Amino acid sequence: MEKYLITGFSGFVSKHFLEFLESLNTNVAVIGIDINLPEFDYVHYKYVRCSFIKIDLLDKNQVDNIIYIFQPAYILHLASFSSVAYSWKNPIASFSNNTNIFLNLLEQIRSLNLSCRIISVGSSEEYGNVDEKDIPLTEDQILKPVSPYAVARVSQEMLSRIYVEGYGLDVVLTRSFNHIGPGQRDIFVISSFAKQLVEIKKYNKPVELTTGNLSIIRDFVDVRDVVRAYYLLFKAGRKGEVYNICSGNGVSLEMIIKKMAALLEIEVITKVDTERIRPNDNKIIIGDSSKIKAEIDWIPTYTLEDSLRDIINYWYTTIA
Amino acid sequence: MEKYLITGFSGFVSKHFLEFLESLNTNVAVIGIDINLPEFDYVHYKYVRCSFIKIDLLDKNQVDNIIYIFQPAYILHLASFSSVAYSWKNPIASFSNNTNIFLNLLEQIRSLNLSCRIISVGSSEEYGNVDEKDIPLTEDQILKPVSPYAVARVSQEMLSRIYVEGYGLDVVLTRSFNHIGPGQRDIFVISSFAKQLVEIKKYNKPVELTTGNLSIIRDFVDVRDVVRAYYLLFKAGRKGEVYNICSGNGVSLEMIIKKMAALLEIEVITKVDTERIRPNDNKIIIGDSSKIKAEIDWIPTYTLEDSLRDIINYWYTTIA
Q: What is the rounded distance in angstroms from the CA atom of residue B50 to the CA atom of residue B29?
């Protein structure tokens, strides 16, 4: 039976990963670890047998013990302080909780000489401020990280390469672009907009939405496509290689709001709060997905409209 | 009176930096911090008033207090676990003691809003394995670090840029090439060779020297030139810029041994110990010093022969 360890288990990505595993109709064993408790049910599956252990991933001894005892064949390293805004306020915590916990993990795999594939989840933020001429971004693009979070992710990537080339570990790297999908917490921009718009619709609240800079363009990819990519990379990705996981399409935040308002059949007025404009924010990020398509035959299956509809439905059924 | 804080005080670089400051005939105040005690006399100067505080730089509270109390105008951040070989054996310690202590330092400067210039000392190791066509290496070269130590240094550099561009700190970055000079500990290759050769000469010991790979080519620069560059960068370097500190000349370890043997008038047989060959070692590293020359008019003043002679004299007077 295949054994998976998932770090950062309590986020919405692992829930979707479990659902993907379940859809394969094959028994698998999963241990999830996180400092926060998961808010979803992880014990109701037929094929996925899942346990959760609440630990601080900075506690190296505890992480070491779990890996030693469980001996996973696959580690999906989702744990991350993934907010760019948070990283500007708490650069040390962002760095420790991204780079250092990952390094602890690699070091335990190395010291146990464990045969194990690790997916090192990175971010499109690693590219940094890029020229429009370099869009869409291929994996060969020079990385110019412009936030503490992005620096932590680039460091994680460099460490992965050292462990692959210097110590022979089996790490596959991703640069995952902005995930969207049902279940995402409302600290993330699209989920936050969706929740507010659903509230406006449901309770006839005032139609004003306070936002940051709406002109920024991002490449959004549905979490259900992302987790399928992680699975395929476990099975067929090349060791030491980095893969963009992206849709290949750019869309402005303004357009997302328009599309969601249309789905909800409401009109909305947006108001920019300058406090929410981040220093050094990237204007445009769109990925090139040719490599992952060519190598593991992955393309997104959810359209932007599919994702936005499901996100709206999620909030409709979730909020009181 | 100018105030300098020197981290990693107990290494040989800070001793030479103090001597350079003394040569300026102007009163300055210096606090040195290090986890190890300095083995040189730092209280005998006329113009340099220097105190030493023994602390672990990973202890953020202590470092914070010292910066808060002393309010230095200049911080020379020499603290580092600078052995590549050590970093392969202890990647976590190497990363913590390079990247994380530097991040703690920057964060305290930021939170105090202290007007202070920091020299972030980096390493030629950051360049990694490079094509011969890219030699000599300019600062624009893409960094491809190939050891845990080098990754830690590149991370330090990326963090410096974030603090300059995102928070407005005044950091000047270096990529310092291999330092040599009197007083360097014998864990470093040239100093180790020199000490062994002096022992051979002084005690008529067997003329066999056990070495690692002698064909690797490095760009050696005298520590006394390096510290002068640090001083000039404090005064005239451009904030956020990175500068190679190098001689611009490459020389093989084999040639260094030959030159030292000639100075000592001995003949020596070298024997390669394969245990000492490191994984992923860079074959050739030579820097281009055009930028620092053009911007702050720095060129090395010590020839390789000057340096080797002084290193040999140092060991002649030091070993029992």
A: 6
A170 φ/ψ angles, rounded to the nearest 5 degrees:
-105, 90
pLDDT level of residue A278 (50, 70, 90 thresholds): low
A242 at B interface, C-beta within 8 A: no
What is the least distance, in Å, from the CA of B132 to any CA of chain A? 20
Give percent helix, percent strand, percent coil of chain B, each to the nearest 5: 45, 20, 35
Q: Are A137 and A244 in contact (CB under 8 A)?
A: yes
Kindly list the residues from chain A whose CB atom is less than 8 angstroms away from the CB atom of residue B158.
145, 151, 154-155
Q: Give chain A positions within 8 Å (CB) of B103.
A: 91-92, 95
Q: Is the pLDDT of residue B302 over 90?
A: yes
Q: What is the pLDDT of residue B147?
A: 92
**Contacts with B104 from chain A: Cβ below 8 Å:** 92
User: Looking at residue B278, what is its pLDDT?
Assistant: 66
Q: Does A148 touch chain B (CB under 8 A)?
A: yes
Question: Does the CB of B121 have a partner CB in chain A at under 8 Å?
Answer: no
Rounded CA-CA distance A275/A272 in Å is 9
Average pLDDT over residues B185-198: 91
Is the minimum CB–CB distance between A57 and chain B shorter than 8 Å?
no
Domains of chain A: 2-180+220-248+287-302 (3.40.50.720), 189-216+250-281+306-318 (3.90.25.10)
Residues of A in contact with B100 (CB under 8 A): 95-96, 100
Q: Which residues of B touch A120 (CB under 8 A)?
A: none
Q: What is the ipTM of this complex?
A: 0.85
pLDDT of residue B274: 79
Residue B239 Cα distances to B118, B147, B165, B245, angstroms: 9, 28, 10, 16
Residues B124-128 have a mean pLDDT of 93
Q: Taking 90 as the threshold, does the pLDDT of residue A82 lie above it?
A: no
Q: What is the mean pLDDT of residues B256-280?
A: 85
Flag whether residue B83 sits within 8 Å of chain A, measured between CB atoms: no
Query: Of A100, A165, A279, which has the smallest distance from its Cβ to B166's Cβ?
Result: A279
DSSP for B216-266 reads -EE-EEEHHHHHHHHHHHHHHPPTT-EEEE--S--EEHHHHHHHHHHHHT-
Distance of CA A15 to the CA centre of its chain: 12
